[in-house]
Amino acid sequence: MSGDPGYTISDSVLETIYRQARAEFPKECCGYLRQGVDGLVAVTCTNYQDKLHALDPETYPRTAERGYQIYGKQLIAMSRSLDSDSPARVIYHSHPRVGAYFSDEDAAAASAAGWPVDYLVIDAQDDEIRGAVLFRRAGESYVEIARYPGLAI
Predict the structure, then answer these.
(1) Which residues have a Cβ under 8 Å from the Cβ of 20 and sit 6 or more positions away?
(2) What 3-state class would DSSP assign to 153?
(3) How large a percentage of the chain has pLDDT more than 70?
(4) Helix (H, G, I), strand (E, B), or coil: what is residue 81?
(5) Are strands 39-45 and 88-96 parallel, antiparallel or unpaired?
(6) What is the mean pLDDT of residues 81-104?
(7) Rounded to two decimals, what is the model's pTM?
(8) Alpha-carbon 34 to chain mean position
(9) Are the beta carbons of 144 and 131 closer than 8 angstroms?
């Protein structure tokens, strides 16, 4: 890992989300990391993007292969966690076949939502998970604050 985000994402948490990314490939996976008693824990979520796209392709032109929307009840739970003793700290999603970068769409959605969280993007390729990059808002943009190694799964 490079940089210090102020918390630790353990190898076991990374493996959990990497396995989710592999299981949902070639679609984007999504979820969040919330503060637990002994560190961050992964809360895997359902990517609702395909259902939104089917209902209204003009408003939601991307499918789950190129976009994510955390399912409503799960998003409400994440939102409520922010006022709890176990708040969400990171929202994560995978980028199948395109690398771990914070896209313009990612930045626009994150800015519009205004959640006080960091964003982890997983590099999911056909043959392995190549790693992940953690981003944090800095003014009007998002900057890389840490990198995590991949896993051959």
Answers:
(1) 29, 31, 42, 44, 94
(2) coil
(3) 97
(4) helix
(5) unpaired
(6) 95
(7) 0.94
(8) 12
(9) no
Contact 110, 121 (CB under 8 A): no
Residue 122 in tokens: 């997983």
Q: Is 2's pLDDT higher than 70?
A: no
Please compute the mean of the pLDDT values over residues 35-64 and round it to a whole number.
95
- Report the amino acid identity of residue 120: L
Written as six digits, the tokens of 35 are 């503060």
CB within 8 A of 90, min separation 6: which ones?
9, 32, 33, 40, 117, 118, 119, 120, 134
Beta strand 30-36 with 39-45: parallel, antiparallel or unpaired? antiparallel
Q: Distance of CA 5 to CAs 60, 92, 117, 133, Å?
A: 32, 15, 11, 11
pLDDT greater at residue 114 or residue 1 = 114
Label residue 3 by pLDDT band (50, 70, 90).
Answer: low
Q: Which domains, from first to last, does the chain contain?
A: 11-151 (3.40.140.10)
pLDDT at position 140, please? 86
Q: Is the dihedral of CA 24, 26, 31, 36 positive or negative?
A: positive
